[in-house]
UniProtKB/TrEMBL annotation, chain A:
Localization: Cell envelope
Main location: other
Organism listed in the record: Arthrobacter cavernae
BP GO terms, sorted: peptide transport
UniProt key word Endoplasmic reticulum: no
InterPro entries cross-referenced by the UniProt entry: Peptide/Ni-bd, SBP_5, SBP_5_dom
UniProt-recorded name of the protein: ABC transporter substrate-binding protein
A GO-annotated cellular component: periplasmic space
Family membership: Belongs to the bacterial solute-binding protein 5 family.
GO MF annotations in UniProt: peptide transmembrane transporter activity
Solute-binding protein family domain segment(s): 80-408
Automatic annotation (TrEMBL), chain B:
Protein name as catalogued: ABC transporter permease
Keywords: Cell membrane, Membrane, Transmembrane, Transmembrane helix, Transport
SUPFAM superfamilies: MetI-like (SSF161098)
Membrane-spanning segments: 12-30, 101-122, 143-163, 175-196, 237-260, 280-299
Domain ABC transmembrane type-1: 95-303
Entry's family note: Belongs to the binding-protein-dependent transport system permease family.
Superkingdom field: Bacteria
Length: 508, 313
């Protein structure tokens, strides 16, 4: 069997690339093969690592937790925040204390009562459990119980993202009796619409939930049975969807064609952006990148529309800005800020004193080989040489932090203003490893952090700054291609490749 | 024979130890940022340090390795760094799936390859040519391509088999049979063609030997010559090929399990390796080494049983 080692190598590459593109590549699939309309089967790219709510993640990795845990605040498909376990919430004048009123009629599936003590226990647990989203509550100093159904969340610094975070991982409420136990890692105990069927659940294969009797909000409980089928492989997901084993799953532009041929419905949603991160803006390792004109020249080198058409089959929108439409920081003015203009690019390089050429070095990123080769060619057309180095490995986050890369081609999630700022702009951000900063930018970031409800609008200034300064060379926002069969209606969820669990309903 | 088995088992243990040490040290090199990988790209340096301490990554390498060996000797293979699931649990639920598939494929390969190979060697002519062409075709089409073709036709177009596995605790033996059929066919096709080719050569070589001529000159029937003498002498070659195929199949099955979403060792190995999830990778490697050692030992014993010459040497 000569194929053994080759097949294994291919599998390793596949897995590495899946891990690297995790932000954009979540995949739910559903398999309902002939089941009643009250059963929903969703495929997911991977199983959850732990059912402890403090270990929950963002986007598509959040979806399975929503089946079993309610959040304090509900995030509607369009991003609007609505009451859930919290009936109302209000900041004090300095935005340093959030007072949250809680429901009084909710119990957990183990019988424990949901109240202010339970909410406090969850937030305290989240803050010390060292989960992947622990940063969501970094600004929270402590929680105090005001009365049985009210808590005060005290902040050390204002955080305009807090209410949003309470609709995400940080807002998931587990039974206080189960928090911190070994058991909750494999068997979730929440107040949510579904309860895990432990006997039918197999790690990394399928997770089965049944509707919880007497769930407090029947509007959010639309199925009797909910199954997550774990289908890591894109081909397997496509086959499972078109053969009717799953009701919904995340595909890509190419496999999407096959699904459309089988009459599957598409719910497209822009969640990530792709492009170059010009990281070494102070020229520590590549002096050319310190010159803003060089960075702008790079931006003018790309025919974004054609690249999108050719590489992504047109599934997305060309853009020059890294902030997403749902963040409030997005502006029409910045959308096509850098036109495709090779002559201008060459002119800018000349003005910068680099007409003899600039060399950029980037690591190869699995799954983005095509994009990188197109980028390389278009940069060469304006006199910039792109040297593509070794492929990213699973040490890539540490490599980024260690300033190993001066430039990268990558796909990144577009989050809320403070999330995006701490992902790519601020000096805390992983994708600002050279700690680029300026007093002007610091002031703009501070304005966002203290901006409360105006944070999104204030973040437009941050967006404008990084676009004008050409910190990045974004190419396009990418469509996440979520497909469902005729039995399911689904509403896409803003900033999520995979809709929230509440967004599915049986087709009439 | 017992001494022989004891000797092979002893060398197997040495191999197991060496491979475990090598794997551990190699993974150590790439596990530098494991804590950050677990926590994601928004983790702070303090969080990373806390996680490293929690996983014992702040301990020196030899300390960690011998702690692992000590635990492993008492049957404790540790727990996944990413999911906290005990490695022994992961292996216990996944080995049956993979082994069922591999052994079903191997038994079918052994039967089909032997029948076809012997037929080709004895009949020659068009049968032989067909086997030769089949071997080339089989070698040139990867199992996963066959798998995708099978799914497209038999699962999606005709709906006879499920496109991906339906094996679950609440499903019966029927689900196993239905879910395993396509993967097993995808696995066995090039095994059959390759195996038949090897068995054909071995049988032809034996048929050309002097002892066969002598047997024929003594008037012994072709059937008896073939089954009593030639096949016995040709068996070691066939067994060796089959054992190599089985070991190779442990790699091939990885992709097949991904395509069919079978909850076997493949997806576990792929995920764990991609993430440098050291405890799980160690478990997977130990399993693989044990399978290889056991298969080789069984082949040696079978060879000795079939062929007295091997026992003497």
């Amino acid at each position: 069997m000569k194929l053994g080692p080759k097949a294994a190598a291919a599998a390793l590459i596949l897995s590495a690339s899946l891990a690297l593109t995790a932000c954009g590549g979540g995949t739910p699939a559903g398999s309902g093969g002939g089941a009643a309309a009250t059963a929903l089967t969703l495929g997911t790219l991977r199983d959850v690592t732990s059912w402890d709510p403090a270990q929950a993640h963002v986007g598509h990795v959040l979806q399975p937790y929503q089946a079993v845990y309610d959040t304090l605040i509900l995030r509607e498909p369009d991003g609007k925040l609505s009451p859930m376990l919290a009936t109302a919430w209000k900041y004090n004048t300095g935005n340093t204390k959030l007072t949250v009123d809680l429901r009084t009629d909710v119990t957990f599936s183990d019988g424990a009562k949901f109240d202010a003590e339970a909410a406090k226990a969850n937030i305290d647990h989240f803050k010390k459990a060292n989960g992947p989203q622990m940063a969501q509550l970094a600004s929270v100093s402590d929680v105090s119980v005001v009365d049985a159904d009210t808590i005060d969340i005290n902040l050390s610094t204002p955080d305009p993202g807090l209410e949003y975070f309470l609709s995400q991982a940080a807002g998931l409420m587990g039974s206080p009796k189960a928090l911190g136990t070994e058991r909750i890692k494999t068997e979730p105990v929440g107040s949510g619409p579904y309860v895990m069927d432990k006997a039918a659940t197999v790690k990394d294969s399928q997770t089965v939930f049944n509707a919880r009797k007497d769930y407090w909000n029947k509007d959010l409980q639309k199925y009797q049975k909910l199954t997550f089928k774990i289908l890591a492989d894109l081909t397997a997901r496509t086959n499972a969807l078109v053969s009717g084993q799953v009701d919904a799953t995340l595909l890509d532009p190419k496999t999407g064609k096959q699904a459309e041929g089988a009459k599957m419905k598409l719910a497209a949603n822009e969640v990530d952006w792709q492009g170059l991160l010009l990281l070494d803006r102070d020229g520590a390792k590549n002096p050319a990148l310190a010159n803003v004109k060089v960075r702008q020249a790079i931006n003018h080198a790309f025919d974004r529309k054609t690249i999108l058409e050719q590489v992504m089959l047109g599934q997305g929108t060309p853009t020059s800005q890294p902030f997403g439409k749902g963040s409030g920081a997005w502006t029409q003015e910045l959308e096509n800020y850098y036109s495709y203009d090779p002559a201008k690019a060459k002119q800018l390089l000349k003005e910068a004193g680099f007409e003899t050429g600039v060399t950029l070095e980037i690591p190869l990123v699995p799954n983005f080989e095509t994009q990188i080769s197109v980028v390389k060619q278009q940069l060469a057309d304006v006199g910039i040489e792109l040297k593509v180095g070794a492929a990213l490995t699973n040490t890539f986050t540490a490599d980024v932090a260690a300033q190993k890369f001066t430039t990268m081609y990558f796909s990144l999630f577009q989050g809320q203003p403070t999330v995006a700022i701490d992902q790519i702009v601020s000096t805390k951000a992983l994708y600002n490893p050279f700690k680029s900063a300026s007093p002007e930018l610091d002031a703009k970031i501070a304005a966002v952090r203290n901006g409360g409800a105006d944070a999104g609008k204030l973040a437009q200034e941050v967006n404008k700054y990084v676009v004008e300064q050409a910190w990045f060379a974004p190419l396009f926002r990418v469509n996440q291609m979520y497909y469902t069969n005729a039995k399911v209606n689904v509403t896409p969820q803003i900033e999520q490749a995979v809709p929230s669990i509440y967004n599915y309903s049986p087709a009439k | 024979m017992i001494r022989f088995i004891a000797k092979r088992l002893g060398s197997g243990l040495v191999v197991l130890f060496v491979v475990s040490a090598l794997t551990f040290f190699l993974l150590y090199i790439s596990s530098g940022s494991i804590a950050r990988n677990i926590l994601g790209d928004q983790a702070t340096a303090e969080q990373v340090a806390m996680k490293e301490h929690e996983l014992g990554l702040d301990q020196p390498l030899p300390v960690r390795y011998f702690a692992w060996v000590g635990d492993a000797l008492t049957g404790n293979l540790g727990a996944s760094w990413f999911t906290s699931e005990p490695v022994a649990n992961s292996l216990a639920t996944r080995i049956p799936v993979t082994m069922t598939m591999v052994f079903a494929a191997m038994i079918l390969i052994a039967i089909c390859a032997a029948l076809i190979g012997v037929a080709a060697a004895v009949k020659r002519g068009w049968v032989d040519r067909a086997v030769q062409v089949g071997a080339i075709l089989g070698d040139s089409i990867p199992g996963f391509v066959i798998g995708v073709i099978l799914v497209t036709i038999l699962a999606i177009q005709l709906g006879i088999f499920p496109a991906t596995s339906t094996i679950s605790p609440d499903s019966g033996a029927e689900a196993w049979v239905y879910s395993m059929t396509l993967p097993v066919i995808a696995l066995l096709l090039n095994g059959v063609t390759g195996g038949a080719q090897q068995i054909r050569s071995a049988v032809i070589k034996q048929l050309e030997r002097d002892y066969v001529r002598t047997l024929r000159s003594r008037g012994i029937g072709e059937g008896e010559i073939l089954f009593k003498h030639v096949l016995r002498s040709a068996a070691p070659a066939g067994l060796t090929v089959l054992s190599l195929q089985l070991i190779g199949m442990l790699g091939g099955v990885v992709i097949i399990e991904q395509i069919f979403a079978l909850p076997g060792m493949g997806p576990l190995a792929v995920a764990a390796t991609g993430q440098s999830d050291l405890p799980v990778v160690m478990g997977v490697v130990m399993y693989t080494v044990v399978v290889v050692i056991v298969v080789n030992l069984l082949v040696d014993i079978l060879n000795g049983w079939l062929n007295p010459k091997v026992r003497v040497s």
